[in-house]
Amino acid sequence: MEGRRVVVSALQFACTDDVSTNVNTAERLVRAAHGKGANIILIQELFEGYYFCQAQREGFFQRAKPYKGHPTILRMQKLAKELGVVIPVSFFEEANNAHYNSIAIIDADGADLGLYRKSHIPDGPGYQEKFYFNPGDTGFKVFHTKFAKIGVGKKFFPFPFIVLALCLFNSLCRSLIELLHSVCQQFAGISGFQRQLELWYSKVQKYYFTQLLLVLNLKILDLILVITGSESCKGMPEPIWTSNMGLFPNCYYVVPLVASNRVGKEIIETEHGKSEITFYGNSFIAGKYSTVSSFFICANFRGPTGEIIETADDKEEAVLVTHFDLDVIKSKRHSWGVFRDRRPDLYKVLLTLDGSNPQL
């Protein structure tokens, strides 16, 4: 029986600081992806211009526009209807006196299905988003498009000192993790192995808000789309990058993931002089289930569902395309028992800020 098939695409390109130029580039790449058969096409975060959050400048608030009547959204609606494709559109939103890092979901008939506002806002050197963006108030949403039920997330890459710490942790724990893998498979079986995966994951990923992925997966979806503006870090290994973008936790839930990042060098004038970021690119598509023992890499810990199927480099624009059979993936997800064995009654502490005295 023919399954539900979807063809997804991740785009990446270097931005200028001219809106028209960038939107033209986005449209050109969307058309290229459509030409390769894609019907859900992901454009990178805040693609209308430079990543302005390197600096705290009052003038940059003028880049924000209201959701309704936004010119780039309207243009992408027209394009989506013409091509019959789904296009998530990232933009800097002005809502009365509030501002959000938002993404509108445009369906294949050009209909606007609503928006998601980024929930967790970073603040640090080069990523001063708290100056510009209110925390999102939409919650984590699943959008029912023509081709698939999709969830969207906006991620930020940890700052260089966190990357270095994680790389060191990766080296120190490699042998221990491989031993854990072996022991769990031998003595605990697949269910025990999953529990150990979850325990290890919770220890390593404290800088990353994984609740978004869990909530979206509980709402029953087919694909996760993640956009970011993440910089290069010399010597950064692939496992750190793919793990931060959600590959490890999302493959744990057996749901494909499409990740889009920008490339190029951007220089912004700040109150302290020039700030420069070279973006990491390396957009990818992951999560194809394999019947053989092909494992995806995450801190040299290897899980039994999925691999990176398509990936771009850290310098060039790219149009990545691959297909998924959503029914096959759904059956595999159910067979893992991840959602069957959840115990929400034991997770009340997650509703607290300090881990004590959950009031439920």
From TrEMBL:
Q: Which residues form the CN hydrolase domain?
A: 6-326
Q: Name one GO biological process term.
A: putrescine biosynthetic process from arginine
Which keywords does UniProt give here?
A: Hydrolase
- The yes or no answer to whether the keyword Nucleus is present is no
Q: Does the keyword Hydrolase apply?
A: yes
Q: InterPro entries, from UniProt?
A: Aliph_Amidase/BUP, C-N_Hydrolase, C-N_Hydrolase_sf
Q: Which PROSITE patterns match?
A: CN_HYDROLASE (PS50263)
What's the superkingdom here? Answer: Eukaryota
Molecular function in Gene Ontology: N-carbamoylputrescine amidase activity
Coiled-coil ranges from the UniProt annotation: none
Provide the protein name: CN hydrolase domain-containing protein
| Organism annotation | Rhododendron griersonianum
